[in-house]
Design brief:
By secondary structure, this protein is of the alpha/beta class. It has helices spanning 12-24, 35-44, 61-68, 85-94, 106-123, 157-168, 176-184, 193-206; strands spanning 4-8, 28-32, 49-52, 76-80, 98-101, 131-134, 137-140, 145-148, 151-153, 173-175, 216-219, 223-226. The strands form 3 sheets. It has a 5-stranded parallel sheet with strand order 2-1-3-4-5, sandwiched between helices. The protein has a 4-stranded antiparallel sheet with strand order 6-7-8-9, with helices on one face. Strands 10-12-11 form a 3-stranded antiparallel sheet. The longest helix is centred in the middle third of the chain and has 18 residues, at 106-123. It starts with a strand and ends in a 5-residue tail after the last strand.
């Protein structure tokens, strides 16, 4: 059965373009032109993923994310013309899985959808995953070891914890505040200096050229994203 995507977009031309992209890639879809209709279809239809515009005529998309996350963890991809870094970070912290800025290409849209589905299904697997691999980089939880091109890397405990967080969320944008909370704890605050130093140390060990990273990409003004294997 095809995965069903809810397209929440009040602009008819953009809505038709998105639906055309989905149809050409064998996705099932339903549409909503406003927030009330979107919430009704989320609760009544078997929706697998939501493509959500923030600027709806009746309900702000941020409120829809808040409402949806009270009862569901299905992927939410924000598709919006709002491009301020603070707003991107805010909706990701609320529970959105990714943020695509208009205008966007068919290739980017479908790639982001595939990554969101892959991450969701991997996260919800019943069995506990003990090994993560991104290209030539391997993290073995049982052995508490990291390998690059089959050679063991010597990483600090915090570098290991940071790398594990990224590998568990490959393909997903993690905001700076999310990372700080996971690595240093909720009460640490918003100082990013320690995280930047930690990132620099980890990149020196896993990247051939830390100045042009291939594994962990900086999402300027928002945070970081580890590549997925099919990127």
């Amino acid at each position: 059965m095809a995965q069903k995507i809810l397209v929440v977009e009040d602009d008819e031309q953009i809505r038709k373009f998105i639906c055309f992209c989905l149809q050409n890639n064998d996705y099932d879809y339903v549409t909503a032109a406003n927030g009330k209709d979107a919430l009704r279809k989320i609760t009544s239809d078997n929706i697998d993923l939501v493509l959500l515009d923030l600027g709806l005529p009746d309900i702000d998309g941020v409120d829809i994310i808040n409402d949806l996350r009270k009862f569901s963890d299905i992927p939410i991809l924000v598709v919006s013309a709002r491009d301020k870094d603070k707003e991107k970070a805010y909706v990701l912290e609320l529970g959105a899985d990714d943020y695509i800025t208009k205008p966007f290409s068919t290739t980017e849209l479908i790639a982001r959808i595939k990554v969101a589905f892959r991450h969701f299904y991997k996260y919800n697997q019943i069995q506990v995953q003990t090994t993560y691999q991104i290209k030539d980089l391997v993290l073995d939880i049982d052995k508490h070891l990291v390998y690059l091109k089959e050679k063991e890397l010597h990483v600090t405990p915090l570098e290991y914890q940071l790398l594990l967080l990224f590998m568990k969320n490959a393909g997903k944008v993690l905001t700076t505040s999310m990372i700080i909370e996971n690595i240093y704890g909720i009460g640490y605050g918003k100082d990013t200096q320690a995280l930047r130093a930690l990132m620099a140390g980890l990149r020196r060990k896993i990247e051939a050229n830390p100045g042009k990273p291939e594994y962990i990409i900086t999402e300027i003004g928002v945070g970081y994203r580890m590549i997925a294997n099919d990127e």
